[in-house]
Each structure stands twice: as structure tokens, then as C-alpha cells.
Give the backbone structure.
Amino acid sequence: MASFPPDRFDNVPADLSRVGAHRAPARRGRGWIAFAWAALATGVLVFGGLFGISRFLDIDLGLGLAPVAETPTPTPTPTPTMDAVTDPSAIDPARGFTITVLNGTNEVGLQNTIGDQLAAAGWPIGTRANAQAADVVDETIVYYRIPEDEGIARGLVAALGVGDVRLVPPETFPGADITIVLGADDEQPVAEG
């Protein structure tokens, strides 16, 4: 290695402890500038990620940039209803058709009263019992299990003078073809005939 003669720069005072490159003191507020850039980058990444997710999943996260295309809800088409079968003798006796009457009210024995009136009118009444609902049922509903029985269910609503009909899966009321759940609206006597 080459050796140079000593000069004035080789004489470093003993109280000077710095070694190496000498830098000027850092400017004030320089740490805040770095923090601001980091916060801006974080915000851009988070916002961009949310925007990308909302586009990918086709959901609206309320970012307000580009509205998600709304899927039009189809207008339900009214289903045709069957005419009410008001004559119980029109029911094929070989079918073994049965009707269950359940009392969904606080009136004791209403299932027997209504069941007796319907049986007297010729309807094939089977089981009569209290409904298992803990609360009082507000509306009388005639449940039927197969679509072909809708006319009979409508005939029973006409005979009761109150209620509505609903198609239910066969396992909902397995004991009968039609189940009448009497509600608090059943205050009218059953129509004869």
C-alpha cells in the first residue's frame, strides 16, 4: 500500500470523536413527511383493495365510486287458483281422503265443535287435536299437501267462512291430506251444506 507524508488533515484533535463521513444535521419535520407518505400509501392500498373486492364479488361496499349494477327482481306471476270444491261428496271415497282439525286458539274444544260441524256437512274429518304452537294462531289456515287438493282446501275455507289456503310439503302434516289450523279469527259458525 502506498504511504503518503503526513499533512494537516491527519492531525485530528483528541476531543473530536467523529470518524468517517460528516453529514449536516437532519432537517426538522423530516420524520413526519415519511409518516405522511406511508399513511397515504396505506390508504391507497386499502381503498384499492376494497374497490377490487367490491367489483370482484359484485357487492356495494358504499364506496360511492361506481354503482353496482342492480339485478332486477322478477315480478311474480300470479298462479291460477282452483275453483272451490264445496260439495264433500265430490271427493272420491276410494282415495281414503282425511282432514285433520287443529285448535290454535285458547277456546277449549273448538276443534271438536268445528270438526263436528264439518263432519255433519259431509266432510271426511279424521283427527281433532290442539295445535302444538305455544302462542295463539291469529289466522285460520287450511294446509294442503298436493296441488290437486287446492280446490278442496278452498271449499273448506268457504265452509268455515274464514281463513286462507297454503300448499305445504307432505312431511309438514303427515297424518292427513288436509290440515285445518283454527285461528283466533274463527268466530263464525260453519256454513251448512
Summary: Residues 30-57 form the longest helix (28 residues). Residues 29-73 form one domain. Confidence is low (pLDDT under 50) at residues 188-193.
